[in-house]
Write a sequence for this structure.
């Protein structure tokens, strides 16, 4: 077992309850020194009520002991449930340090859970998504990974590959033996099934990852077309938090709204048109960048002013992009002969709900099917791509090269799949072959 680590597991600040968690050797001994109660015998998984002693004061709370290996980390664990608040939780934490625990590093409890085989790597990633997720979709996608759904899917594929490898290896090692030989057509078909399944998973990545991470929407149009008003109307509709997040990937998010559980990050861009003004030029350049990297561009045309040469200039810049044309100010005039996708009024709210659904549909976000398997993490996507390429090569080489050479690609595919769960050692393949085909007679 590892050394004893300790940390506050709940968010810092004033709250009803705070939880201080310990894991590793000596956790129970620390609990015994700090926690006082009548008849407390630290029976595992039993929540005791009593006094939690800190250096200078005590709190009245609860304590529970999780006995290894039946705990989150797989080690002995203890939790103190004290009153929430910075002073109390810090005092409890410090007392655990005084009694021998050391501060846990980021994610160390979960890392131990992984190292002790309690969770796969993809499950840990799901947990991170769940904790950091701000939208319903992020939480749901995280839960999918956390509960090992993808892992189970990958595991099955690895088992199938292992089985195929075992069959081939038996033929290679014991060609004279009276065991069935690997039929090349059978091997090829079995590999094709795995390959097709992997390709199917890969094909979910684009839509599902977008649904999870959120979609970037750029509003563009000439000055006074009503971009800011549309933004405000959308945000008000959803009572969204105006985030103003500055970051490397998000630039300046003007606000986020949730449509069908998916986060849409809206960018209000400066009017793009030819300009000689230095400051305006910088604004226009930034707008163009936001527009080019957006998943969907919303081109706002002013119904009152009509479609003019400035609109034409803007349209020319976005024709190659994924865009929709919105005619705003329909309350003033909706008789403009413009080819638009929707007529709305930011002022009266007319067609705003329809507009939101149009944004959703045109953003190419797919509704994630939680009954099937899907991929949202880039790391999993690339591992699957590599596995798929190896399998493709294996399939193409069957009948061309000897089967023992083909196994190199199959083993590579197995290895790449193992990256998803975190289990990458080829030793397991070898072990499995011997376990299944006990031909050592
Ligand atoms: P932006 O420069 O494109 O961001 O445009 P604004 O949102 O600042 O709007 C410019 C002007 O048009 C303001 O006076 C708004 O009140 C007005 N406006 C925006 N949307 C509408 C609308 O749907 N109907 C009417 N009648 N006026 C609007």
């Amino acid at each position: 077992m590892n050394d004893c680590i300790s940390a506050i597991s709940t968010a810092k600040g004033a709250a009803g309850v705070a939880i201080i968690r310990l894991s590793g050797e000596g956790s129970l001994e620390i609990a015994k020194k700090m926690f006082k109660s009548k008849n407390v015998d630290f029976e595992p998984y039993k929540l005791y009520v009593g006094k939690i002693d800190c250096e200078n004061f005590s709190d009245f709370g609860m304590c529970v002991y999780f006995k290894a290996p039946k705990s989150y980390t797989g080690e002995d664990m203890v939790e103190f449930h004290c009153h929430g608040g910075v002073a109390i939780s810090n005092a409890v934490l410090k007392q655990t340090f005084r009694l021998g625990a050391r501060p846990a590093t980021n994610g160390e409890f979960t890392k131990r859970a992984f190292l002790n085989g309690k969770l796969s790597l993809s499950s840990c990633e799901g947990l991170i998504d769940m904790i950091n997720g701000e939208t319903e979709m992020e939480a749901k996608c995280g839960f999918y990974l956390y509960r090992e759904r993808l892992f189970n899917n990958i595991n099955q594929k690895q088992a199938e590959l292992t089985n195929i490898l075992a069959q081939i290896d038996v033929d290679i090692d014991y060609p004279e033996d009276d065991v069935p030989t690997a039929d090349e057509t059978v091997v090829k078909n079995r590999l094709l099934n795995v390959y097709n399944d992997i390709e199917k998973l890969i094909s979910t990545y684009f839509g599902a990852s977008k649904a999870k991470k959120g979609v970037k929407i750029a509003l563009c149009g000439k000055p006074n077309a009503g971009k800011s008003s549309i933004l405000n109307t959308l945000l008000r509709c959803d009572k969204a938090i105006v985030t103003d997040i500055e970051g490397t990937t998000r630039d300046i998010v003007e606000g986020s709204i949730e449509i069908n559980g998916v986060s849409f990050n809206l960018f209000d861009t400066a009017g793009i048109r030819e300009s000689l003004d230095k400051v305006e030029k910088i604004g226009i350049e930034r707008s163009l960048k936001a527009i080019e990297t957006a998943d969907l561009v919303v081109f706002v045309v002013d119904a009152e002013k009509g479609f003019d040469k400035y609109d034409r200039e803007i349209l020319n810049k976005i024709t190659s992009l994924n865009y929709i044309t919105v005619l705003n100010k329909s309350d003033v005039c909706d008789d403009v002969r413009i080819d638009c996708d929707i007529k709305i009024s930011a002022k009266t709210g007319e067609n705003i709900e329809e507009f939101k659904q149009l944004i959703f549909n045109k953003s190419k976000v797919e509704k994630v099917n939680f009954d099937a398997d899907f991929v949202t993490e880039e790391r999993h996507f690339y591992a699957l791509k590599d596995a798929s390429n190896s399998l493709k090569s294996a399939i193409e080489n069957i009948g061309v090269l000897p089967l023992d050479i083909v196994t190199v690609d199959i083993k590579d595919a197995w290895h790449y799949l193992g990256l998803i769960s975190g289990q990458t050692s080829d030793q397991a393949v070898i072990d499995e072959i011997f376990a299944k085909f006990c031909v050592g007679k």
In short: The pocket of guanosine-5'-diphosphate is lined by residues 221, 223-229, 328-329, 331-332, 345-347 (CB under 6 Å). The two ends are 39 Å apart (CA to CA).
